[in-house]
Design brief:
Layout: H1 3-14, H2 17-27, E1 31-34, E2 40-43, E3 54-57, E4 60-63, H3 67-71, H4 74-89, H5 95-110, H6 118-123, H7 140-155
Parallel strand pairs: 2-4
Antiparallel strand pairs: 1-2, 3-4
Helix pairs in contact: 1-4
The chain binds zinc ion (ZN).
Zinc ion binds next to α4 and α6.
Length: about 160
């Protein structure tokens, strides 16, 4: 294992995010197996939430599918592995509210929780199954009103 990946494993063990992942696995009766690079795989995750085929808590990557699916999608593993690294950078569970804020921002800007989400862009949008949508112009009616109003005032000034 590369030194950086070893540091990530120790960091996420120390900041308790991997422990939170293992607790979630225990509470949801999700079986755990060893993956590469200090990662753990929770396979055949059953609960409906979150609405994702895969998600990461600390160094634990949860999949709704089995090991065959995981091994056949190295790009998705690379994406989720990047999220494990993000947990380490966020000192563990602060990742969750930060991710939530970025997902909310992205949802407002594009209608999709991933397209303008810093964490998903950093981990790779396509590998995570997210579209790269353009930003929406939500304030267009306001700008149109202001532009029209300013033009109207301009016309009536001496
Ligand atoms: Zn992701």
């Amino acid at each position: 294992m590369r030194a950086a990946l070893h540091i990530r494993r120790v960091a996420n063990a120390t900041n308790l995010s991997t422990a939170a992942g293992l607790l979630l696995a225990a509470l949801t009766r999700t079986s755990i197996e060893r993956g590469p690079n200090g990662l753990l795989f929770g396979t055949k995750y059953q609960p409906r939430l979150p609405l994702a085929d895969a998600f990461t808590v600390g160094n634990v990557i949860f999949y709704r599918a089995d090991r065959h699916y995981i091994d056949s999608r190295p790009e998705l593993l690379g994406h989720e592995s990047a999220h494990a690294t993000q947990y380490a950078w966020c000192l563990g569970l602060p990742f969750l509210p930060l991710y939530g804020a970025c997902a909310t921002f992205s949802l407002w800007r594009t209608g999709d929780p991933g397209s303008r989400n810093f964490f998903e862009r950093n981990a790779g949008l396509a590998a995570g199954g997210y579209p790269n949508l353009p930003t929406l112009v939500r304030l267009a009616p306001l700008w149109t009103f202001l532009a029209h109003n300013m033009t109207w005032q301009g016309r009536h000034q001496p």
